[in-house]
Design a protein that fits this description.
Blueprint (H helix, E strand, L loop, with lengths): L1 H7 L2 H23 L6 H20 L8 H29 L5 H5 L9 H7 L6 H14 L12 H25 L10 H8 L1 H21 L5 H11 L15 E7 L10 E3 L5 E3 L2 H7 L4 E8 L7 H10 L9 H4 L9 H9 L2 E6 L8 H8 L3 E3 L11 E2 L2 E2 L1 H12 L6 E6 L24 H27 L5 E7 L9 H4 L12 H6 L2 E7 L7 E8 L3 H8 L23 E2 L5 E2 L3 E4 L2 E4 L11 H26 L24 H12 L6 H4 L14 H14 L1
Parallel strand pairs: 1-9, 1-10, 4-12, 5-6, 5-9
Antiparallel strand pairs: 2-3, 4-11, 7-8, 10-11, 13-14, 14-15, 15-16
Length: 705
């Protein structure tokens, strides 16, 4: 014991203990929290040693301070910052199955609307372990078991530690390169970087990549658009003549179904008595309606931006960025050729977005101006009284109900997107709104997912009933789509038994298939609706919608193709580089037969060639999309007839007055539902069973009596 105490009473001894403790918790986190795809003895060894180099490097900063008090203080500060980074990545990974990018960290202020309860829901009892080493180190000093080393300290010892760190990293990198050649020169997968070089290196490397991207934007010029335009021209798919223009001049209402996955459609949950209960009966009826063009093999393609990424994709036919959220990183400064701008320029549409959360969430208030959104009704336009909100904003039944007053004022034709929030992780819902029993698995998140999905279904039905009663329904195309997964990959095995799958045999193919989302084009008055089995992604939604509205897209910069076209490209790119096609599903280094789900263990040369072509096609599509956003390339290209957007001309303050002025100036030419209804509101036609409103009505009655 005395020998140990003597060692710890030296700076190097205390420093070494801090390194060992931090390394132990980091390795524990790797094994316990992250799915890194580690296989073989070599990869296991690399994972074991990769935290050490960067820990020694950053901790060695403290050794450069001569005065002991400063040295120990700096060591603790570095330790706390690195611990916070590790723990933040652990929490982030539990929800997003991904690592924190630098842009996400610095853009945290723009994604903070309602994250508190989500964070609490992600905490686990074992999380104490990730802070225990700090408690131990502080306790050793506080109890004076270890005293500050006041002896003269030589700088060469600090240099020696830094040199050791660099040497260890060089050895680590050599091992990594031997197992994964060109690790840092290829378009990398974040899992690979963490697996081979560690989470601290990933953060530093990501910061370098971000800085390089900013430099690329400064150095870009018109010639950089040549490759993009060539791809768009070659990739273009002619519209299906039977579908082109079938919704021409109609209003477009996008219903953004938060965290809604395809498996929910037609799904019946079995209760403890063996009875089956349909989770989303109304959405199911729309999915199978003869007036609906529905799809069964559409995949979300979001990255770290999740909901905001889905908006970037469907509004621009451009992917989100490989790191961070595109809305927060480039949304407030880039040039866009968005659906809003195209519809306003070519057809005179009015545009609006409605969302019962703060306007700064995901930087929407700035990004929408860059995209040319006329009106943005955020939480400031809704009643957020106590009891009306959940973590991410206004409850869906209240949101759709209150949105009617804004919808009726919009000049027609209009293009609007309504973003629901109640079916959002961690899926809380107050008892008054629950009328569906949760599932019975070991994961409460999975259990409650069905409860909030049912609530969303009821809210959508109430909104449809209003559209029909008010007269908006017949002259609109209502598009329903899921923005991204609701159950993350880390929870899929808990869900598996409910889907008739064995958790023990669940694999990458199953994970990829779970990324399917519903997509429905509901066009009242049509009779040729059907369930389409074509493969596609959110990237294809913009050209599909434009062709349904009778607007040509050949000269527009879109990475996707029309889902109804015979020339539609059915190769689906995931943001992490995985690929799904009607024939093959490529998940990391594994490949599967998409039809059977069977792992292709020994692919022939012909199959390998086909799969390599799929990978190259996806890589090209993603990299060109990234170049557009990173370098703001659309500033160099404006299709004929597309208006130039002036973000400063948009204001999301006093919007009711703005619309009233426009309607008054239009006089007899006004086209809003409010005007066409004789300047009378239609909001009294909205019928809802939201208990919050019913309680309010009862209270008012009691007061009057």
């Amino acid at each position: 014991m005395n020998k140990l105490k003597n060692v710890l009473n030296t700076r190097i001894g205390f420093f070494s203990l801090a390194v060992v403790l931090f390394w132990a918790k980091t390795y524990f986190g790797y094994k316990q929290e992250f799915s890194l795809g580690v296989t073989g003895a070599m990869q296991q060894f690399i994972l074991f040693v990769n935290p050490i180099a960067t820990i020694v490097l950053f901790f060695s900063i403290a050794l450069y301070f001569k005065k002991s008090k400063k040295a120990y203080t700096v060591l603790f500060l570095v330790h706390i910052v690195m611990s916070a980074l590790l723990f933040a990545n652990i929490l982030y990974y539990r929800e997003f199955s991904d690592f924190l990018a630098v842009t996400t960290i610095f853009g945290a202020g723009n994604v903070a609307g309602g994250l508190g309860a989500s964070t609490l829901a992600l905490l686990k009892a074992r999380d104490i372990f990730y802070w225990l080493d700090l408690v131990i180190l502080f306790g050793l000093l506080a109890t004076k078991f270890v005293k500050l080393d006041d002896r003269l300290y030589k700088k060469r010892s600090a240099v020696a530690m830094t040199t050791l760190a660099v040497t260890l990293f060089a050895a680590n990198l050599a091992l990594a390169e031997s197992n994964r050649p060109q690790l840092l020169t290829r378009t990398f997968d974040r899992n690979y970087i963490v697996k081979y070089l560690g989470i601290n290196f990933f953060t530093a490397y990501d910061g370098y990549q971000t800085a390089q991207s900013n430099q690329n934007k400064a150095n870009a010029d018109e010639s950089d658009m040549d490759a993009v335009l060539s791809y768009v021209d070659e990739h273009y798919a002619e519209p299906n003549p039977e579908m082109f223009g079938v919704a021409e001049d109609r209003n477009v209402i996008y219903l953004h179904l938060e965290s809604f996955q395809q498996f929910l459609v037609d799904y019946k949950l079995e209760d403890e008595n063996g009875e089956l209960h349909e989770v989303t009966p109304f959405i199911n009826s729309i999915f199978r309606d003869q007036q609906t063009q529905s799809f069964t093999n559409i995949f979300h393609q979001v990255g770290q931006g999740k909901t905001a990424d889905s908006e970037m994709i469907l509004e621009n036919s451009l992917f989100g960025l490989p790191q961070g959220g595109a809305f927060t990183q480039v949304g407030g400064s880039n040039t866009f050729q968005s659906a809003y701008n195209i519809l306003e320029s070519e057809k005179g549409y009015t545009s609006a977005v409605m969302h019962g959360n703060v306007g700064s969430f995901w930087n929407r208030d700035n990004t929408y101006k860059q995209m040319g959104v006329d009106y943005f009704f955020d939480s400031s336009y809704y009643d957020l009284s106590e009891g009306n909100t959940l973590e991410y904003g206004l409850k869906d039944k209240l949101f759709f109900n209150e949105s009617a007053q804004y919808l009726e004022q919009l000049p027609q034709p209009f293009y609007t997107k309504m973003i629901s929030v109640s079916n959002h992780f961690p899926y809380p819902l107050d008892e008054a709104n629950v009328d569906f029993k949760p599932a019975q698995t070991t994961d409460e998140t999975v259990n409650n997912y069905f409860v909030t999905a049912h609530y969303l279904d009821q809210a959508v039905e109430e909104f449809f009933n209003y559209l029909k009663a008010s007269g908006l329904y017949d002259n609109s195309m209502i598009i329903l789509y899921g923005d991204h997964y609701g159950i993350s990959n880390s929870r899929n095995k808990a869900l598996a038994p409910l889907l008739g799958e064995d958790p023990e045999t669940w694999n990458g193919y199953n994970d990829d298939m779970m990324q399917r989302i519903p997509l429905m084009y509901h066009i009242p008055g049509t009779t040729n609706g059907k369930i389409n089995e074509a493969f596609g992604g959110q990237i294809d939604m913009l050209p599909t919608m434009m062709h349904l509205l009778g607007i040509q897209t050949k000269d527009k910069v879109m990475m996707g193709t029309d889902l109804f076209s015979s020339g539609h490209d059915q190769t689906v790119a995931f943001r992490n580089g995985n690929v799904v096609s009607p024939k093959y599903t490529l998940n990391g280094s594994d490949s599967y037969d998409t039809v059977t789900g069977q792992l292709i263990e020994e692919p022939s040369q012909a199959i390998l060639l086909e799969q390599e072509q799929l990978k190259e096609a996806v890589s090209t599509q993603l990299s060109l999309s990234d170049s557009i956003l990173h370098s703001d390339l659309l500033r160099f290209y404006t299709p004929a007839g597309l208006n130039k957007i002036d973000p400063s001309s948009y204001s999301y303050q006093n919007q009711i007055e703005q619309m009233a002025t426009i309607n008054n100036e239009a006089g007899d030419n006004a086209t809003s539902l409010y005007y066409l209804n004789g300047n009378r509101s239609t909001t009294d036609l909205y019928q809802t069973n939201a208990p919050e409103l019913m309680e309010s009505t009862d209270s008012e009655t009691e007061i009057k009596e």
